[in-house]
UniProtKB/TrEMBL annotation:
Protein name (Swiss-Prot/TrEMBL): Uncharacterized membrane protein YccC
Coarse class of the protein's main subcellular location: membrane
Domain Integral membrane protein YccS N-terminal: 71-339
Alphabetized InterPro entries for the sequence: Memb_transporter_dom, YccS_N
UniProt family annotation: Belongs to the YccS/YhfK family.
Coiled-coil stretches: none
Membrane-crossing residue ranges in chain numbering: 20-36, 66-86, 92-109, 139-160, 401-418, 448-464, 470-486, 493-509, 521-539
Amino acid sequence: MKEKLKQLELFLKSTRLDRAIRIGIGIAVPFAVLYFLGYFKYAPAIVVGAFLNAPGDIPGSFKRKVNAILISIGLTMVITTIILFSKPFLPLLLLALTAITFIVSLISVYGFRASLVSFSGLLAMVISFAIQKETAHEIFVQVALMGVGGLWYLLVSFIFQKLTPVKDQNQLLSDTLLLTGEYLKLRAKLLTKKTKRDEHLKQTCVLQNQINEKHETLRESMLTARKRSGRSHYEEKQLLILLSSINIFELIEAKHLDYKMIDAIFGKRKEFLKASITLSKIMGNHLIRLSELLIQNDNIPNKDSLLDALSKANESITNYIETVKLPEAREGALVLKNLYDYQEQLLQEIRIIRRVMANVKEASKVSLKRQDSSQFLTLQEYRLNVLVQNFSLDSTMFRHSLRLTIAIVFAYVLGIVFEIQNTYWILLTILVIMRPSYGLTKERSKDRIIGTLIGAAVAVGIVLLTHNQVVYAVLAFVSFILAFSLIQQNYRFAAALVTISIIFLYSFINPNAFEVIQYRVIDTIIGAIIAVVANYLVLPSWEANNLKQVLLNALKMNKIYLLATQELYQNPSKHKLSYSVARKEAFLAISNLNASFQRLTQDPKSKQKEFQLIYEIVTLNQTMTSAIASIGNFISNHKTTPASIEFNVLIKKISNTLQMSFDSLDDIHIKKKVDKETVEDAQEKLLGKYQQLSNIRDENIRQGNTALDTDTLHSLQEAYLITNHMNWLISLSENLKKATERYHSSIIEDQ
């Protein structure tokens, strides 16, 4: 019960409910004010304007939010005008319907915020079919009032922003810490859950993508805010939490271990890994609790459990050495020590977040130069050239725009032929459900139909119990707000609530509620079927055919990241910023690759060409990024020896192999080679350095000098990690080259 009350509190304090309330106020206030003033006839148009322009109100830069809503207002007014003037002339209306659907849907090529503006425009087009205005005067009044409604909603959004200026960012930070905590716990399972490793790795791909999306939104919001006036103390604290959350995520990424090596070293002695696994789980749960405290007003949990778990992880190293005995225990002990060091760094970042949230003054000081911070922003390009580049059947968004246009026009013509009462309900269903991805469209169609049936059943039950119009009005309003607050979390439940809201809203127009329910269900099913069939048959965009460019970008960014790590090893202080930027770009590229693979899994089995090969390539790219991150993380947090000639030789070998993978996939046949003997010699020398240090240590132990000084330990750690990870990267890059060559061959055969 306590857990349910906590979840209810988090929901009531969430920005999801907050944004739904904004929409509710944007709708309710005009109705109420104009009703009491005696101008109620103008209320519907203003309300429609407010509703249509709400989608652009999403977290991020306030300036971009305002610009999006203003563009949305202009777009919805123009589209409504065109449709209303075209309605008396069927050929002209069909032409307008076709042109608007295609052109406006193509705006989505400019990114997520643009896609919401596009949705507002298309929604205005569909709703225009429900508006009955015939004369030019009536049409212009309707459009003008819709513009007023849009500006009214912008004012509501502005007021909410001023009243709670940090609420959106707090929610995003909370969501980020929650996802990061879950991710850390999931990665801990990979150490011992050998049979479920593939399943867990696929789950990590989903979480990686979600975390990267949160980080991108937070970067845009925080790093572009108040450039002239500076940041407030509270914003400094939020920025520090963001930086620590990014560091935690990158540390987790950097510890993508060679699990085959772990299995080989520890074999049946995996009980020595349990302390590390427990520590990761405790830290993950602690992050989840901190995420809740960003929303709740409660005390920060005691840190004793974290420190105790860290102490036990350290003790497990000693226990392992005492059980297995040196020198046989050295390799396993170094693995455990590297794992301990990484977890200690994670704990340091968690403690920074704790101190910031506890208002420790020294913890909330952060310095980030503007010219440096701008390099971490992924800026959306809004030039006409972006649209021109996507004007091709090779573009996923172009194909989606054509597909959506055909589906919308077909549905409207179907409505005319069969004299369907509310054709625009079918159009609305298609618009809301249809996505570029077949899998997502199918999933949303299923949720929409089930949600509509549930909502209709609930509405029937309420109608049978009462015929009170006041009850209908209250339920319509409450269900509307709840629907918009849950639409991202639970689309099926949101669809049920939307259905309830619409049914009771239409009950004011048509007293026969059962007739409204009947038409709503039938039109939703028709729209969902058209959306799914169109996605499958009309210019289908299967993810297997769209994967090439995403793969090329991942290979390119991994190579850049590898070379940035080489520069960091040579001069850590000079190349820290360029390394961090390259790391961020590599992580984003891998996140996009993971997202693409997730979409592939949602396509029909018959369309998942070379699924296992693609999964192998995705996994190899992911593992390479993490292996590079592991080296970079060690260099950043330890005093290292100068980069050796052998290290540079192996970097060149791995870089060239990655380039060969890129070239083979991109139909370029220029192959750069590094002499095989040179590479093998470099590998032997790196291994020799580690063996030399091990032999010296063995000799000291034989002479009774069992104490291990910090410098020797760090030298052993560095030699062991660099040797193993470079050999691992060579193996990964070679496997990746073979896999990409096989993948390229399969593409050619299918063409």
